[in-house]
Amino acid sequence: MTATNLPGQPHIAYQGNTLCMEGVALPDVAAQFGTPVFAYSKASMLSALAAYQRGFAGRKVQICYAMKANANLAVLQIFAKAGCGFDIVSAGELARVLAAGGQPEKIIFSGVGKTRAEMKQALELGIGCFNVESEAELEVLNDVAVSLQKKAPVSLRVNPNVDPKTHPYISTGLKGNKFGVAHERALQIYQRAAALPGLAVVGIDCHIGSQITEATPYLDAMDRVLDLVTDIEAAGIPIHHIDFGGGLGINYNGDTPPAADQLWQQLFAKLDARGFGDRQFMIEPGRSLVGNAGVCLSEVVFMKPGEQKNFCIIDAAMNDLPRPAMYQAFHQILPVTPREGQSTVVDVVGPVCESGDWIGRDRELNVQAGDTLAVLSAGAYCMSMSSNYNTRGRAAEVLIDGTHVHLIRERETAADTFKGEHLV
Ligand code: LLP
Question: For 361-380, how does the pLDDT look when each residue is reduced to its tens digit (9 = 90+)?
Fold first, then answer.
């Protein structure tokens, strides 16, 4: 049987006329678990991680998976076993890391709105670092730490004011964004942090955005951060680690982001040239580790020809796959068992009562009701951003490892969706 590989999807291919992930036929997954169902390739996640590890060979780097991209316990378990730490943004994520076997000291806590309760919990557990995003947060964290008689390890997230050239909703390193502290104020805030009794300055942090497909914004941001490290250390405050955030893009639709190892070769060339090559580094990748490891399988419910548009109505919707509705994002859509013959141009849409509930527009497909489609690049920011809108239970999730299929999340029932609600 001939295998037809798909660009950007090393672990998904047509074997003859059947779309497979690793050694498993995807039509079988849909038949066994029902649809919609997310399937993730373990080999794909590990090979994405390996690209970073190659780029870091011989360097001191801790990879902290940004678990907001995909927080399923089994996914976290894979990364924890591979030595990763985690970038978290809530007490909920902290609980997930612990449930999956992650180590507290490898956790970094990001986010602009950490509550006192979250700070306390993280301090008591002994997490590795708080990435502090404002002066107000710095004062409150100091307060909480002093009351616990602890010292909170902190990095300041600095805003390098670099344009990552991505969608405005996922660009975070510009002056108008809510994230981080201004580059110009950073030294002053570091001096304040160093003077507070409940804080221990350990590093510096920066994250400029997501789905970045060029190296230049990274190289520019690195220059800005290194300038600051020089100034902060000249003021007598040692910076033990440099956290360079996440943001590396993936190939959704012919996008050509740099490979992780090549990007880091370029970054280390700069670091070496400026004398910072032997420092401790951290990174927080999310999408680039899991995005192209996942597909969402969905059944065609009806074909609905129209005067202006033909619709292909599937059983997955914006509550399962929110990225097209939120960011006009493109996901490739393929039949798991292609038919012979003519395709037509259709809008692939879900059953939710919103015109914004579309998954793909103007796609050439030859499909009929009952066929199964695969929505690609669905490993990141799909299930983790899913909702119960229209009282739709969340989809099931499976992990594919060679020829094994593990159910890693059960499909939600209607009763699950109103658990915890009360009649009066
Ligand atoms: N570190 C911080 C502080 C972040 O805010 C993020 C993502 C990451 C790391 C991981 O970035 P990544 O490597 O995944 O690009 N929902 C949007 C993406 C939102 C990203 C939020 N922050 C989407 O579906 O495109």
Answer: 999 999 999 999 999 999 99
Q: Specify the ligand 1 atom closest to the Cα of 382.
A: 24
Q: How far apart, in whole angstroms, are the C-alpha atoms of residue 36 and residue 315?
A: 6
Residues near ligand 1 (Cβ within 6 A)? 66, 69, 87, 110, 170, 207, 210-211, 245-248, 284-288, 323, 327, 381, 385
- pTM for the full predicted model: 0.97
pLDDT-based confidence at residue 167 (cuts at 50, 70, 90): low
Q: Whose CA is nearest to atom 24 of ligand 1?
A: 381
Q: Which of 122, 81, 90, 82 is nearest to 105 (CA)?
A: 122
Whether the per-residue pLDDT at 70 is higher than 70: the answer is yes
d(CA 87, ligand 1 centre) in Å: 10
- Of these residues, 20, 84, 312, 353, which one is catalytic? 353
The span from the CA of 173 to the CA of 163, in Å, is 7
Q: Which domains does the chain have, with CATH numbers?
A: 3-41+291-417 (2.40.37.10), 110-285 (3.20.20.10)
- Cα 138–chain centre separation: 26
Residue count of the chain: 424
Name every residue whose Cβ is closer than 8 Å to that of residue 306 and which is 6 or more positions away in sequence.
none
**265 φ/ψ angles, rounded to the nearest 5 degrees:** -60, -45
If DSSP codes are grouped into helix, strand and coil, which group holds residue 289? helix
Q: Which atom of ligand 1 is nearest to the CA of 246?
A: 13
Residues facing 302 on adjacent strands: 313
Catalytic-residue membership of 353 = yes
Q: Which residue carries 């880091």 as its tokens?
A: 264
Are 95 and 52 spatial neighbours (Cβ–Cβ below 8 Å)?
no
Beta strands in 84-230 (DSSP E): 85-88, 107-109, 129-132, 152-159, 181-182, 199-205
- Round to the nearest angstrom and report the end-to-end CA distance of the chain: 61
Token reading at 91: 């007490």
